[in-house]
Amino acid sequence: MEKDFVTLTYTLPEAHIVERRPAAKAPIALAKEARRALGELRKYLRSDFERTSQYVKDSYEKQYRTSNAKWYRNYTDRKMVMPRIEGDKIIVSDKLVILSAHMQMLSHIFDQLDCRSVLDVGSGRGNNVIALASLRPEREYYGLELTQSGHERSLEWEKDLKEKAMPLVGIGEDMERVDFRKIHFLHGNAMTMPLPDKSVDASYTTLVLEQMPRDYPKALSEMRRVTKKYCVFIESFRESLTLADKLDLKNRDYFRFSYKTFEKYGLRPVFFSTKFLRKNKFSTGLLIAEVT
Ligand SMILES: C[S@@+](CC[C@H](N)C(=O)[O-])C[C@H]1O[C@@H](n2cnc3c(N)ncnc32)[C@H](O)[C@@H]1O
Question: Using CA atoms, how far apart are residues 109 and 105, in angstroms rounded to an integer?
Fold first, then answer.
């Protein structure tokens, strides 16, 4: 692992932030964490839920039926703010803020590692690809999504953005710079990707392995096959979780495993960090793995 392999940088979109406050002092935080762990332990003793790929497909098919404009209104609604954690601070904001921080970090990572083509695995309604393309339109982008409805919404961004400017990073980026000729949305499964070997410089997932707690090795092998240089993951790695988080994720049957196992699938971890804006429950880590 190389501590300075990349630097993680982003500018918070101030217009989307409602409040900043210090995180709870250690004894209070510890007491809250213990209470949460106890609650999760009680659920754990009763729970035997298994996250199957059919369950995942059905739930996301429904989610992506809403239009991109409606999704954007929801993501920027200042009445629906949430607390996030950044170091020893709580940042209360709308949902766009975490998307903004993630996409700026990824874009800077791809700059630093000279990745000119990138694949988003589990690209949902395509918002992350469009956000990245608004920051760096000259890159080539691929977005692979399991659900039909997510794929359909992805293809609608070009039309939707003509009707309404929806800045997805919220830091003054110009959405008119998005070059749709360089964006390719694909409908398919991460376990059998419809892409040739070594077709992109980098591939990434944001909160997608979390949905495949048993099958993720197949997705990792496919990412390795289609990627030339690096795979980047923002996921709920064991190394970023508290005890209560681990129980919570077990109860929901989410991915909750160590990034150290990735080496087995030909992905050598070179950088790992949890030092960025994160959810306050089952928080995420950012891993960069080199294709070996
Ligand atoms: C929590 S959402 C995250 C979406 C997007 N990456 C984001 O950050 O907004 C998980 C996504 O992974 C997709 N997904 C789950 N299993 C998949 C698979 N086997 N192949 C492709 N996509 C998959 C789901 O359909 C869903 O769009």
Answer: 6
pLDDT at residue 7, as a whole number? 93
Q: Which two tokens stand for residue 16?
A: 């989307």
Report the pLDDT value the prediction gives residue 253, as an integer from 0 to 100: 85
Look at residue 199 in the predicted model and tell me its pLDDT.
Answer: 98
User: For residue 41, which amino acid is it?
Assistant: L
Mean pLDDT by 10 residues, the chain (292 residues): 89 96 82 85 81 89 97 95 91 96 98 98 98 98 98 98 96 96 98 98 96 91 98 94 86 89 96 91 91 96
pLDDT of residue 108: 98
* CB burial string 80-101: b at 16+ within 10 A, e below: ebeebbbeeebbebbbbbbbbb
What is the C-alpha to C-alpha distance for residues 139 and 156, in angstroms, rounded to an integer? 20
Question: Atom 22 (ligand 1): residue with closest C-alpha?
Answer: 122
The architecture that CATH gives domain 14-291 is 3-Layer(aba) Sandwich (3.40)
What residues have CB less than 8 Å from 145, skipping those under 6 apart?
122, 123, 124, 126, 151, 154, 185, 186, 187, 188
Q: How does DSSP assign 60-99, residue by residue? A: HHHHTTS-HHHHHHHHT-TTS-EEEEETTEEEEE-THHHH
Q: How far is the CA of 264 from the centre of ligand 1 (A)?
A: 23
pLDDT at 33: 81
Per DSSP, the residues of 241-255 read: --HHHHHHHHHHT--
**Structure-token pair, residue 255:** 């991915």
Strands (E), 1-67: 17-22
What separation in Å is there between the alpha carbon of 34 and the centre of ligand 1? Answer: 31
Question: What is the strand order of the sheet 140-145 is part of?
Answer: 183-187, 140-145, 117-121, 200-206, 227-235, 285-291, 267-273
**Ligand 1 neighbourhood includes 203 CB (under 6 angstroms):** no
